[in-house]
């Protein structure tokens, strides 16, 4: 049996503001939950790097749009958003600019079942 096609999505959020660890809110008041954070190289690999190494850490964040209730337990401390900004603002070219002026590429904006998903990857310093 084939899966039903998801309804087409509109544009990604114009802005995402930090509300608490792992939780962002968009301009429509919808909450976005950080469900996964991928960091490369891994924390263990940092220790093996040579001093003065110029390798930049790659961060990819997976967010789902879902309601969050005040009584919802906080997320694990490892999601205390290493490297995530206090605000993302949508720019031309499928990118967000963070409060620290770093650019984040929209890797995916789609749906998983009925949940809207946004995947962002931090671009290397100096990317324009």
TrEMBL record:
What InterPro entries does the annotation carry? Answer: TCL1_MTCP1, TCL1_MTCP1_sf
Tell me where on the tree of life, at the top rank, the source sits: Eukaryota
Q: Which Pfam families match?
A: TCL1_MTCP1
Q: Alphabetically, which GO biological process terms does the record hold?
A: intracellular signal transduction
Output the Gene Ontology terms for molecular function. protein kinase binding; protein serine/threonine kinase activator activity
Q: Which family does it belong to?
A: Belongs to the TCL1 family.
PANTHER family in alphabetical order = PROTEIN P13 MTCP-1, T-CELL LEUKEMIA_LYMPHOMA PROTEIN 1B
* Protein name listed in UniProt: T-cell leukemia/lymphoma protein 1B
Protein encoded by which gene: TCL1B
């Amino acid at each position: 049996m084939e899966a039903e096609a998801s309804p087409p999505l509109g544009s990604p959020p114009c802005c995402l503001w930090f509300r608490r660890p792992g939780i962002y809110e968009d301009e429509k008041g919808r909450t976005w939950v950080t469900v996964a954070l991928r960091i490369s190289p891994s924390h263990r690999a940092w220790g093996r790097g040579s001093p003065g190494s110029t390798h930049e850490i790659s961060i990819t964040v997976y967010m789902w749009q879902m309601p969050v209730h005040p009584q919802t337990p906080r997320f694990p401390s490892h999601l205390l958003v290493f490297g995530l900004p206090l605000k993302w603002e949508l720019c031309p070219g499928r990118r967000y600019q963070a409060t620290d002026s770093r650019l984040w590429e929209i890797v995916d904006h789609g749906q998983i079942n009925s949940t809207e998903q946004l995947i962002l990857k931090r671009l290397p310093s100096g990317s324009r």
